[in-house]
Write a structure and sequence with these properties.
about 50% helix, mainly alpha
Length: about 110
């Protein structure tokens, strides 16, 4: 599921970058640059509005996908605090030291 979100985020990012690159930074947009025609080329009057709406839509899609994808990433939840027994447990069969170290054990 994580791979699906990564693919969708990358695809939306590429489309968003293409939309931004098509826009004219001075507000002319795509419609004013096609072979010198006016904004009524092929009946499209408001290409700049379409590109601006597309920018906002794809930016929102990327934001929503990033937030929703955190639910499906394994291990992304807040780790719980360890209890003292989980931090350091004693060995199951510890070797016992002799009571009197000078006397050998039998």
């Amino acid at each position: 599921m994580t791979i699906l979100f990564i693919i969708l985020i990358i695809l939306a990012s590429v489309i968003l970058s293409l939309i931004v690159l098509v826009q004219n930074p001075k507000g002319g947009g795509l419609a004013g640059n096609i072979a010198g025609f006016s904004n009524q080329f092929m009946g499209v009057k408001q290409t700049t509005d379409v590109l601006e709406k597309g920018t906002w839509i794809f930016a929102a899609i990327i934001g929503v996908l990033c937030i929703v994808s955190t639910i499906f990433i394994p291990g992304s939840r807040t780790p719980r605090a360890q209890t003292p027994t989980e931090q350091s447990a004693p060995a199951s069969n510890p070797q016992q030291a002799p009571v009197n170290p000078g006397v050998p054990a039998k």
